[in-house]
Write a structure and sequence with these properties.
Organism: Bacillus coahuilensis p1.1.43
Number of domains: 2
Strand content: 15-25%
Helix content: 40-55%
Distance between the termini: 48 Å
Domain Aminoglycoside phosphotransferase: 14-212
CATH architecture of the largest domain: Alpha-Beta Complex
Shape: globular
Oligomer: single chain
InterPro entries: Aminoglycoside_PTrfase, CcrZ_PhaseVar_Mediator, Kinase-like_dom_sf
GO molecular function: transferase activity
Radius of gyration: 20 Å
Number of helices: 10
Number of strands: 10
Protein name: Phosphotransferase
CATH topology of the largest domain: Aminoglycoside 3'-phosphotransferase, Chain: A, domain 2
Order of helices and strands: EEEHEEEHHHHHEEEEHHHH
Low-confidence stretches: none
């Protein structure tokens, strides 16, 4: 990464699971660099969903480096996720046609629930499938897959952890880290936020700020997808021997099943 800049720049790792993000600084100028970020970052930048894209460079080995404005601000807390600005930005993302058009041009097809169910059925370790809550969860997914369909496909972020929301010092809200993006049911994103961050009694209000009603169809789809995603996260933590995090997810899964 250093060879892209002259000696006046300081390059430091930005952390993260992939190790592909960096900060670059020269005096007061700061950039956020990432290797092989989402291919539609330019559209996200143009729509004001992510910090401004400054430049893109392709390396000889085929890797693509992007540089964005470094925003002074903070990540959202779990409590912040109930703010109306989160609902409004997510609605904008789900309804912005240039985002959907760009992914379609890249050959991305709508993600179907059968694909996620296959990931669960074939990807979980045998030790996990023996657990009662996992068995109940898989049974729920199999019994209800016939109800998990929509004609409304949108661009979904796919990883709406509160740490991926950036509030700048100027009050602008951004959603970053689009590596898990897909075309899919908006319930994929909505379920992640509502189940993980919003009290059940506030779901109707939050969704009205987003722009939809809490219908029976939306409820079952959100529950279905969030259980799928949680099971896949359980498997990931299990594979990394992160027992504490895995057990916390299993406890949350018990609550999701009964809700």
């Amino acid at each position: 990464m250093e060879h892209l800049f002259d000696k006046e720049w300081t390059i430091t790792p930005a952390g993260g699971a992939t190790g592909e993000a960096y900060f670059a600084q020269r005096e007061e100028q700061k950039l956020f660099l990432k290797r092989n970020s989402s291919p539609f970052l330019a559209v996200l930048s143009a729509e004001g969903i992510v910090p401004k894209l400054i430049w893109t460079k392709r390396l000889e080995n085929g890797d693509v480096i992007t540089a964005q404005s470094w925003m002074s601000g903070r990540e959202l807390s779990a409590r912040d996720m109930n703010d109306i600005s989160v609902a409004k930005l997510l609605h904008k993302i789900h309804s912005t046609k240039p985002l959907l058009t760009m992914l379609e041009r890249l050959g991305v097809k709508p993600f179907q629930p059968e694909e996620m169910l296959i990931q669960v059925e074939t990807g979980l370790d045998t030790d996990l499938t023996r657990r009662l809550v996992v068995e109940q969860s898989i049974q729920f997914l199999q019994e209800n897959i016939g109800d998990i369909y929509t004609a409304n496909y949108v661009v979904c972020h796919g990883d709406l952890n509160h740490n991926n929301w950036l509030l700048s010092d100027d009050g602008d809200l951004y959603l970053i880290d689009w590596d898990s993006s897909m075309i899919g049911d908006p319930a994929i994103d909505l379920g992640l936020i509502l189940y993980w961050y919003i009290p059940r009694e506030d779901w109707g209000m939050w969704l009205s700020q987003y722009g939809v009603e809490l219908s029976n169809s939306l409820q079952i789809r959100m529950k279905w997808y969030v259980i799928c995603q949680t099971l896949l996260s359980v498997q990931w933590h299990y594979s990394k021997d992160r027992v504490a995090e895995m057990n916390q997810l299993l406890m949350r899964l018990e609550g999701f099943i009964t809700l």
